[in-house]
Amino acid sequence: MKNAFKELNSIRIISSDNVDDSKYYFKKANELIKESFYDYEEVVSLNEMGSKISVWVKNLNEEMQSLILFAIENDGKFSVITVSGKINFDSISKLSGSLRSGAPFP
Description:
This protein is of the alpha+beta class. The chain has helices at 2-5, 19-36, 89-101, and strands at residues 8-16, 41-48, 51-59, 65-72, 78-85. Strand 3 (51-59) and strand 4 form a beta hairpin.
């Protein structure tokens, strides 16, 4: 887990569990990123089992990235996560797999 986070500059998490607000926020986040964050590329878009996830990445240079993830879960919770710095996608992928399987962190 240490390797996944050691070279990050920042992580920000914002969430809302108000179902009506969450739907509005998700819709507006989609609109805003397409209108104002044109230098970001959508790398993941999922819509399954009532949950929607969208991940956008901007490569600042060979080693620095900026990532924006926004999601609305099937229970109506909305989250925005922004990460900047040297993102180790391999470590994050392994961490994500551990979380899903219930295995201890690498």
